[in-house]
Structures are given as C-alpha cells and as structure tokens.
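Worked example 2:
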Amino acid sequence: ESYGEGAASDGSYTHYMKGGVPGFYPSIKGKNNGQISLELYDPFGFGFRDKPADKRARGLKSEILNGRAAMFGIMGFLAEGKVPGSVPILSKIAGFPHYDGEVMAPFAPALHLNF
C-alpha cells in the first residue's frame, strides 16, 4: 500500500482512490537504481497477470470468500475464549485458553496505552 501511495510520482499510475484499478501496482523491477529485482505482484514471473479476465474474477471472488471465512474463524476463537462453551467444537479441546480481559478493548473510544 505504501508503494501505491507514492507510485504516481511520474504520472503513469493512478491510485485506486482516484479512479485507478484496485489491486494494480505498476512494475517496480529495476527501480531504485536497479536494486529492486523482483515485482510486488508475481515476483517470480508465473504469469498471474496474464490470466483471462474470468479466471482473475473467480480468483478475486475466492480470495474474498476465504477472507470472510477467516474472519468467522477468528471470531469463533474469540467467542470461545471469552464465553466457554459458546463454540461446541472448540469447547471440547482440553486446555483451551480462557480470556478474562475485554475482547473489544482495541475498539473502545478511550483506548489508552500505558507503557
């Protein structure tokens, strides 16, 4: 993401928040006086960008669905840690850690970090 913010310095790249294509990054190979030898996307040149549009769309959909499944999984672990027995499969695991703190503390309006 940080590369995408500064990639428009030569005008050949349009950031996705300004009408560009989401997920597209221009080539960085050979940049920085030739020190960068790999690309951000498809670093070993397997040809992922060369796939037909329908296969790319299917891959994007699969990636979104996998991300959603991962979020459900994380919430299941958080729920079982906070309320034992809330996820029957996880409650059968002996020694599953119980959490006594506030799970949603990072999202509280008054988050204070005391170091």
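The chain has a mean pLDDT of 81. The CA atoms of residues 13 and 26 lie 7 Å apart.
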